[in-house]
């Protein structure tokens, strides 16, 4: 009875949100034609400058091997960190399949890609869990992996049998973090989500479409799940407890709406950096001078990442187009003062000093994720 009632309430709630998504869409003023980067950017010149810096993209999900793609990496002099994700929603398939595909991609990359592995967080209650994971990771490091990813399911999805959410600083993971640090590898931590995940649908939000398509991750629909502050506090605790562990907070460390929040963590935790993956738009819509000053002040702490995907069932031509457009756009935004279209607005590029651009696109990744470029360099 009780659970039926709960179900009914949640159906009503989901429907209400769906309606408000629709309403929001139709409320869009007719004249805001969605700007399409393909039409407004002639990538050739940007890509030439991008390639000259020997760029490193520290956050991609590539699971298909294709000589045409390898050719792109070589023309762009591009280095990639290919990241595996352990989820049970099937975004990239079974973990073993995903890992095999990622290994295939790295093997075919002619030295352009390195592997970031992950571990199964769902089986955390198994006897000997931490030791088994450490054993697995050590083997993967020996085979060439240079980083380990944890994902938002820790903190937002996985629960103990008594109903408590497992947080990123859970003692069960502590020995694993210590082992990663002892092996001089890097933890890539996608912890929590953008703040819009807990807020009503808003078509102006960069994540509007994602939550429309992924209601299971839309915490506005699941008010019984932990609040963002609670999850980030656990992440901060992890940073404090593991000063020897290098942590790259994926997606601007989920502090995407205000660079001051990132700055506070940088001041507190010298072992912490962030990547820009899938959050460049948030840097584009914050006040330009504030973002520019932040990137100059903390020029050693931000690594370039995109969250671009190259999936097994995807057309290589489509992927090549999207990757090139994204790199061209990001280059234009960070290193020139040209205008970029974003949701009907014109955003002025940050025109960062050349040494800062070089650090964000290359140097920082070399330091924060050792092994990302071949040692012969
Ligand atoms: Zn990602």
What does this entry show, briefly?
The chain has 377 residues and is of the alpha/beta class. It contains 16 helices and 11 strands. 46% of the residues lie in helices and 12% in strands.
SSE diagram, text form:
Elements: H1 2-27, H2 37-40, H3 43-52, E1 56-62, H4 67-75, E2 79-83, H5 95-107, E3 113-118, H6 129-142, E4 147-150, H7 153-156, H8 174-182, E5 186-189, H9 208-213, H10 228-241, E6 246-249, H11 250-253, H12 259-268, E7 272-275, H13 280-285, H14 288-297, E8 302-303, E9 308-310, H15 316-335, E10 339-342, E11 345-348, H16 354-368
Parallel strand pairs: 1-2, 1-9, 2-3, 3-4, 4-5, 5-6, 6-7, 7-8
Antiparallel strand pairs: 10-11
Helix pairs in contact: 3-15, 6-8
The protein binds zinc ion (ZN).
- N-to-C CA distance: 66 Å
Helix content: 40-55%
Indicate the low-confidence ranges by residue numbers.
Answer: 21-41
Bound molecules: zinc ion
**Spatial strand arrangement across the major sheet:** 8-7-6-5-4-3-2-1-9
Task: Count helical runs.
Answer: 16
Describe the structure.
By secondary structure, the protein is of the alpha/beta class. The protein has 16 helices and 11 strands. A 9-stranded parallel beta sheet has the order 8-7-6-5-4-3-2-1-9. The protein has a two-stranded antiparallel ribbon with strand order 10-11. Helix 5 (95-107) links the parallel strand 2 and strand 3 (113-118). The model is unreliable at 21-41 (pLDDT under 50). The protein binds zinc ion. Residues 59, 61, 83, 277, 307 line the site of zinc ion.
